[in-house]
Amino acid sequence: MRKLVLDGYLPYRLSVASNAVSSVIARAYQTRFGLKVPEWRLITILAEAEDRTQLELVSLTAMDKVTVSRAAQGLVARGLAAQRADPRDGRARRLSLTEEGRRLYAEVAPAALKLEQDMLAGFTAAEIESFQALLRRIEAAARGPDPAVTQA
């Protein structure tokens, strides 16, 4: 039986890497744009689409309902997003970017791409492509059957 060594345990390594990247991003977005990471994620998703329900945003951002709700409230309070009733479901609210939100996105997006470029500067295009494919496979495997249930 293989011994569990935390530093070599893939879920731990992924968590540490994710936390390190998130920390850099959080500092950059907060300092330069006054945005929290969940707010930036919503702005990005909303910039890609006309509008979304909060349930759609939960699914698209992999954030929980409370985080999405708080981020949406923050964007609305700052005038970066607007809410309206969903015509198909009166209980649901649709969120969209305001002109101010679109202007902020146009300013933040290049900074985000530069941050990514700087982080990946030591990697070849083939390594980045391979890494992204591997991450997608890990995500898919993690969304598959619950290993705790299938091994019981």
Could you describe the 3D structure shown?
A three-stranded antiparallel sheet has the order 1-3-2. It has one domain (37-144): Orthogonal Bundle (Arc Repressor Mutant, subunit A). The chain is mostly helical and 152 residues long. The radius of gyration is 18 Å and the shape is globular. The model has no long low-confidence stretch (mean pLDDT 91). Helix 2 (37-48) packs across helix 5. The protein is built from seven helices and three strands, in the order H-H-E-H-H-E-E-H-H-H. Helix content is 66%, strand content 11%.
SSE ordering: HHEHHEEHHH
Shape field: globular
> What is the H level of CATH, i.e. the homologous superfamily?
Winged helix-like DNA-binding domain superfamily/Winged helix DNA-binding domain
Count up the domains. 1
Low-confidence stretches: none
Q: Would you kindly provide a brief summary of this structure?
A:
66% of the residues lie in helices and 11% in strands. It has a three-stranded antiparallel beta sheet. Helix 2 crosses helix 4.
